[in-house]
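Lab manual, section 2.4: Encoding a predicted structure.

Procedure: take the sequence of the chain (248 residues), apply the prediction step described in section 2.3, and record the output as structure tokens. A sample record is shown.
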Amino acid sequence: MSTTYDVGAAPGLIDEDLSADLAGAALALARRFHAGATLWVISPQWEPHAHHVAVEFVHPVVVGKRALPSVALVAADTVAETRIATRPGDVVLAVADAADAAVADVMRRAPAWGAETIWIGYGERPPAGAADHVLWVPTADPMTPATGRFVLMYHLLWELTHVCFEHPGLLKPEEPECTDEVCVTCSDEGRLGEVVAPPADLLSGALVRTADGEEYVDTMVVGEVAPGDLILIHGGAALTRLGEEPGA
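Recorded output:
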């Protein structure tokens, strides 16, 4: 059963920076749900958190609130299951520390799947750019995942998402502005792609998954590619192969 938390009753648990991060994540999540997204939740180390988050969003325990599509993914191969489940426009939410290699790998691949990412955790923060939204508890206490601080964060995320629904004007995504400088929208393309299949022959392109769907990409510049490789695409060609570090 969901619980409504009074942030004022828990001083120090949610500071100003985390409040701003929660507000930004909730607005992004509301916009994605409004556009038809599904929320996929992963937590390889702490599976109960994945189930709790999914139930929080899909089960409207407050009268008048929407049931939102949310599913916990708990298979042994986190990356493979999330890859299969996720579709462009979806959101992937992880509850894990920064050392969780499977979660870090999902986070770095999600842009190629067209998914927005939210990472809830504690301890040392992930590198900048590791996820679209990072909701972090700055403590090294190993008992943090077993306390109410994680639960408080995703309960607040749920409540703030529904607050955004009460303001329909917020739900339309902001249109990017074009200036006289280089604009990623209309000129200087640089898209992340995940290789699905290598070229069938020297004259063929590799089948690559991007946020826009699957397409064939010329990989002559980067050489041989294998399924799962992440590449940066410009003008229909792969410019470089990305490393495995988070935020790459």
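Check your result against the sample. Residues 9-170 form a domain with the Rossmann fold fold (CATH 3.40.50.10490).
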